[in-house]
Amino acid sequence: MSDYNFAYLDEQTKRMIRRAILKGLAIPGYQVPFASREMPMPYGWGTGGVQVSAAVLTPEDTLKVIDQGADDTTNAVSIRRFFEKTAGVQVTEATTDASVIQTRHRIPEQDLRADQILVYQVPIPEPLRFLEPSEVETRKMHSLEEYGLMHVKLYEDISQHGDIATAYAYPVKVEGRYVMDPSPIPKFDNPKLEMAGIQLFGAGREQRIYAIPPYTQVVSLDFDDYPFQASKADHACDLCGAKDSYLDELIVDDQGGRVFMCSDTDYCSTRRAQGHVGAQGSPIQEDAA
Amino acid sequence: MQAQLLEGGFADLPVDASHTFRAVMTAMARPGDIMDVAGAKPPSPLSTACGAVLLTLCDPDTPIYLGTSHNTPEVRDWITFHTGAPFSDVENATFAIGTWQALPLSEFAIGTPEYPDRSATLIVETADLSNAGTTLKGPGIKDQAQLSLPEQQAFQANAALFPLGLDFIFTSGNRLAALPRTTKVS
């Protein structure tokens, strides 16, 4: 680890990122531009989240990294190893043991505590980008609080599909001012954006950092007659039986057999260790081999 | 050149800076929380906390305005040696250091409607910092918090500028607290 500066980035880069994080916390939901660096991983693999984590980590931290809720996917494992090597921090897969959690596209099922920090990897930070390609224009729209276009988009969802079909990256309004992209988390997770922990968002390729302080008002956009609904697959987890967690649907054979299981692997395995068994699950001891 | 201006920096820069930043970030995310910091030994009248914040956040990219209370040769030399930050007039300052009376609030950059982040952060040196006095509400605060602020009206006027406005870090000895523009004081 002595071959690297602590947490990989040089100190001047960290100072620049840290100043952006502070302004982000002071203006919740506003995208602060920052000079994103080349990282030893490709864009789209969480370079923004990694840079934010590097600026936030202290040697005493315990880091957890999840990708779509899972601790054991390539992206999560490689980022976890990256910080094990360059920052020498402890790592964990248990949500309750972590002090810093870097996430791609999920919020852990377990409620976060006040002393935990959640760092999101963000692909496209601008919620208006697919409606208005020009950065000059979207910046003007944010400054004028001109969000009518977003409501038109949600309205068109209703007129075409009979319902708001947006299921992930569902736009939110933060503290009554900025419309923000919560990163591509399922809209099931939107209500959890109001939490006790600090939430930081890093978009490496797009060079933006934004933040939500604890207990900040985060409202999912909707209409009076089509209120926001946090949706999930209408099943219980087939492994642990949880009815309140977000589920992945897996095709398991060529006959169309399918299994629903918790996307949050730590939540699922914790429940199974406690003895919960789902419809197709087996007691966890038998899986040990 | 006096030898003492070379002293008082972080002993282990990456680690000390990471601890100080965690304290500053927590304070900014939770207005009213008072955090301890350590590691810097700046010359008087800079407090330990103010010195640590400077070492953590300031570099050649951040022009600093020194209030009259802190504009001494020792302070200037120490900041120059340890951070390389240039000194600037009020309008162009990214950071400002001084006592409450020494900072001309109305003249600092408050950002632009399109870039509200291009605003100054004021590091206000105070004699005492405690969870008493003014009531704080807003993002980062569960119900309400208390903090000893030098006054109320200036912070109410600042909050009314949102999303523009100034952000404050209060330092006293080795302790610090922060007040972003979103906090409503009463």
**Widest beta sheet: strand line-up of chain A:** 1-9-8-5-4-2-3
String of helices and strands of chain B: HEHEHEEEEHEEE
Average of the residue pLDDT scores of chain B: 96
Secondary structure category of chain A: alpha/beta
Strand content of chain B: 15-25%
Q: Could you give a short account of the major beta sheet of chain A?
A: 7 strands, mixed
What would you call the shape of chain A?
A: globular
By CATH, the topology of chain B is Rossmann fold
Binned, the helix content of chain B reads 10-25%
Share in helix of chain A: 25-40%
Number of helices of chain A: 7
Spatial gap, N to C terminus of chain A: 34 Å
The counted number of beta strands of chain A is 12
Contiguous low-pLDDT stretches of chain B (5 residues minimum) are: none
Taken as a percent bin, the fraction of beta residues of chain A is 15-25%
Number of helices of chain B: 4
CATH architecture of chain B: 3-Layer(aba) Sandwich
Give your account of this protein's structure.
The complex is a heterodimer of chains A (289) and B (186). Chain A has 7 helices and 12 strands. Chain A is an alpha/beta fold. In chain A, helix 1 packs across helix 2. The termini of chain B are far apart. Chain B has 4 helices and 9 strands; from the N terminus they run H-E-H-E-H-E-E-E-E-H-E-E-E. Chain B has helices at residues 13-29, 48-57, 73-83, 153-160; strands spanning 35-36, 64-66, 95-99, 121-125, 134-137, 145-147, 167-172, 175-179, 184-185. Chain B has a single domain (2-185), classed as Rossmann fold (3-Layer(aba) Sandwich), CATH 3.40.50. In chain B, helix 1 crosses helix 2 (48-57). Chain B has 186 residues and is an alpha/beta fold. The interface between A and B is large, with 45 and 39 residues.
